[in-house]
Amino acid sequence: MSDDLPEYYFRVRDNGAFVFRVDTENRQRRIEMDQIAVVNIRNGQIKPHGERDLTERDLSVIEEWMAERLEILAHRDIDDIHRAVDYLNTTTHWAQSKATDDQLELVSDALLLAMHDLRSVLVRKKAERLMKEKGG
């Protein structure tokens, strides 16, 4: 199993990851993980852990991981939005066919405000895009 392990391990956290170098080449053949850096993908910072100097290979692997992670997160954002559209459709069906008056009373104001806010932002952004396309 240890022959299949990657050379680096990234413990994901909210803004990035803790980066570890994986070592199985020790006398006990145990998996050892040595933290080498902390990564912040929002600002692109790579901070060596402790008094470490990161090698060019370390930096290359970390930068590659950061680029891949940003792609994954961007994909997830769009997927979440597609799900939100599905939820809106499901909510519409629920409100029309299943919801009681009491249930609608509980959620209507919050839904109306959220949808108004979303609609306002979408209309403004659409207008901005149309203006850009027209060169204005």
Q: What is the number of helices?
A: 2
Distance between the termini: 61 Å
Which percent range describes the beta-strand content? 15-25%
Question: Total number of β-strand segments?
Answer: 4
The whole-number mean of residue pLDDT values reads 94
Element-by-element helix/strand order: EEEEHH
Would you kindly provide a brief summary of this structure?
With 136 residues, the protein is of the alpha+beta class. It is 55% helix and 20% strand.
Structure description:
The structure is a single chain. By secondary structure, this protein is an alpha+beta fold. A four-stranded antiparallel β-sheet has the order 1-2-3-4, covered by helices on one side. It has two domains: 2-98, no CATH class; 101-136. 55% of the residues lie in helices and 20% in strands. The protein contains two helices and four strands. A hairpin with a 2-residue loop joins strand 1 (8-13) and strand 2 (16-23). The protein has helices at 56-97, 101-133; strands at residues 8-13, 16-23, 32-40, 45-48.
